[in-house]
Design brief:
Layout lengths: L3 H4 L13 H11 L3 E6 L2 E7 H8 L27 H11 L3 E6 L3 E7 H5 L5 H12 L7
Antiparallel strand pairs: 1-2, 3-4
Helix pairs in contact: 4-6
InterPro entries: CBS_dom, CBS_dom_sf, Diverse_CBS-Domain
Protein name: CBS domain-containing protein
Keywords: CBS domain
Length: 143
């Protein structure tokens, strides 16, 4: 059985809470990613997603100079390196998340797992496919 440590991305780009939204948006564009973990040192504080920028930034008419801590998502679901891929896929499907930060003791960020990382694992194709279909489905389709 594979674990998250076997599939997670470990060279994760991060930003600081005092960085501004514009700088992080440019970084997201340059890296072609939809989310950036927000950390102080190695400690995960939150995540800034492209959706956060739109919903809590642009839609609320906040300038690009707004600090990340004002628009980031703070209450995150996280995984651990020794967690199984099956457990993570199920959790991601149930909670409707596409990216799972992987942390160790004291919320130290050690990696990130995207839904696509799970989908490429031969042993978890069914679980990852289910997770993707659950996450991609309209909310009203869930019971």
């Amino acid at each position: 059985m594979s674990h998250l440590k076997d599939v997670m991305t470990t060279n994760v780009e991060t930003c600081k809470p005092e960085d501004n939204v514009y700088e992080v948006a440019v970084k997201m564009k340059d890296l072609e990613v939809g989310a950036i973990p927000i950390c102080e040192e190695d400690r995960l504080l939150g995540m800034l997603t492209d959706r956060d920028i739109v919903v809590r930034g642009v839609a609320e008419k906040k300038p690009g100079s707004t600090s990340v801590k004002e628009v980031m998502s703070e209450h995150l679901l996280t995984g651990e390196p020794d967690q199984t891929i099956d457990e993570a896929a199920k959790m991601m499907a149930e909670k409707q998340i596409r990216r799972l930060p992987i942390v160790e003791q004291n919320n130290k960020l050690v990696g990130i797992v995207a839904l696509g990382d799970l989908a490429v694992q031969q042993t978890t194709t069914d679980e990852a496919s289910f997770a993707l279909s659950e996450i991609s489905e309209r909310p009203e389709a869930h019971h």
